[in-house]
Amino acid sequence: MPHMPEKDPSFWVLVLTALRENGLAMGLTFALTWLRIQYDGKETKPWRQIIEAALGALIVMVVGLTVKEFGFSIAWSFATAGFIGVLGVEQARQLGKRWAERKADEI
């Protein structure tokens, strides 16, 4: 039988630890993203609004885990929360794609 990490109790301990450490930044991202979506009025479907806000929160959790591993300040998580919340997931994706293309062209 293949190894299923979701059945391993240590997996859930890691997930809960990540949520505890980054929960405030994730909540801030979710709230900012949802408010920006409401203000723009472009997305009218509630499920899509919730999914975009949740994606933003997950991105901030990943950033939070990354900055912790590199020994940077947790303030980077809050900076990312504001960035993602105000600009949105799609805009952040486009900026990341342009940055990656520039880096690939330099190589």
TrEMBL record:
Keywords: Membrane, Transmembrane, Transmembrane helix. It holds the Pfam family Phage_holin_3_1. The keyword Transmembrane applies. It comes from the Bacteria. The chain crosses the membrane at residues 12-35, 47-64, 70-89. This is Holin. It comes from Pseudomonas lini.
